[in-house]
Amino acid sequence: MVLRLIARQRSAVVWAHLRSRHWWDTIVPDFRRSLVMSRTPPIVSVLPTRGLVDEKFKVLVENLPPGRPVTVRSLHRSEDDHYWEAFGFYTSDHRGTVNVSKDQSVGGTYTGKEPMGLLWSMCPVPGSRKGFRLRKSDVCSPMLVNISVHSGHEGFRDQAPLASVLIERWYMAPGVKRIDVRERGLKGTLFLPPGPGPFPGILDLWGGGGGLVEYRSALLASHGFATMSLDYLSCGQPVFTYAETAFNFIKDHPQVVADRVGIVALCIGSLPALYLATDSTVVKPCCTVCISCFAIYPSDRVVAGSFEELTSISGNVPVDENNHEMWKYVGLEIMSGSPKKANTGKLTTPLLLVTGCDDQNAPSVEMAEDITQTMRAAGNDHLLSRLDYPDTGHLIEPPFSPHFRSTKFVTADKRKVMILWGGQTKPHSDAQEDSWKKILSFLQQHLCSSLNAKL
């Protein structure tokens, strides 16, 4: 009994000593926390799980052991059954969490603090065929992306995820209406914002790839603009007249404010866009946005509206070390031949030029400078706004779209080639996010400010 009493007293002294050194207050809670974490599986949450493609999200991983290396991955199956992924390497903090919006990725398809890197750095999974481009065809359905967390930084594709969540990225906001347009000989799609209107209008013109491209129009409608995408390369009639017909269709729509219609154009879509803004005697846009502008007419056939020449370039097209065609230099050769140009000196409404300084598909930098000099000489350069982005390529898309330095392309004369678009992934992606905000601001200023005053 005496020995037991002495042992108990010594034990009490030891415990009192340890508690006086705060051992109990520091180690035990961490032990309890680790014990709880070992019993609670990791979870990954994304807010919002459903949103527009230009809306940021937050990714949070919880219930990890402290200091654990993990990989956060996004995976998307495209409409043509190809898989695209992005991933970042992280280490959980002392609470066992990874916050993608605040924490640094130390490797993967992106590095640093990049809240949206899981989208803009997407690339084909290993083993995929090269040269494909990720674009949404069916804008009435969402882009589905699986966000998952995996243990470690190596071999994560071969293991089951610790946790995952499926998110939806939409081009069409709830309530946006999609309407096929087959009137007046037109082939287009009109997107109307929610509500009765009337709305400001936009004619959306894409580039030399042709076809009916809808996703930018759907997104613009989600921001309050009645927008029509137009297939103008296969119209079978003079393009400028066809564009005038499309512009008048939007202007005459009962849910559109007739004197509040603008144009957004990419690449050779700038040709009909600037024609409507300068030389047309039928229509007059309130403002014009030209992305990666190409506004030169290499022949009378193009002036008359036959655009096949611009998309069937053959002959001595320079190529890079990977045999990717650089059409920019063909455009520069055309420019050096004193071609007919869009007469921007006649502009009477605002123009915004968005230019990638590493555009390898069109001489958009030189074109923007030429337009600037022309407008300055004419005394209307106060109408011009320019956004020039270093290390940015030709395909300046809505925010968080993956960057494509080169992709496959089929020309109008059926040649299958690899086109060099240019740009570096990180600066190109930053340019897409910044330019989209400023494009929307430009359109709001010139299509909505006076409209709001009227209302």
Question: What labels describe this entry?
Answer:
single chain; 455 residues; alpha/beta; Immunoglobulin-like; Rossmann fold; 2 domains; 8-stranded mixed beta sheet; 6-stranded mixed beta sheet; 28% helix; disordered N terminus
Number of strands: 21
From the spread of the alpha carbons, the general shape counts as globular
Q: In the CATH hierarchy, what is the superfamily of the largest domain? A: Alpha/Beta hydrolase fold, catalytic domain
CATH architectural category of the largest domain: 3-Layer(aba) Sandwich
The level-1 CATH class of the largest domain: Alpha Beta
| CATH topology call of the largest domain | Rossmann fold
Give the helix tally: 10
What about the largest sheet?
8 strands, mixed
Radius of gyration computed on alpha carbons: 28 Å
β-sheet strand percentage: 25-35%
Strand order of the largest sheet: 10-11-13-12-14-15-18-19
Please, how many domains?
Answer: 2
- Helix percent band: 25-40%
Q: Calculate the mean pLDDT score and round it.
A: 88
Uncertain ranges: 1-38
Terminal-residue CA separation? 95 Å
Give an overview in words:
- The chain has 455 residues and is an alpha/beta fold.
- It folds into 2 domains: 43-170, Sandwich (Immunoglobulin-like); 177-454, Alpha/Beta hydrolase fold, catalytic domain (Rossmann fold, 3-Layer(aba) Sandwich).
- It has 10 helices and 21 strands.
Please outline what is shown here.
With 455 residues, the chain is α/β, with parallel strands linked by helices. The chain is 28% helix and 25% strand. It is globular, with a radius of gyration of 28 Å.
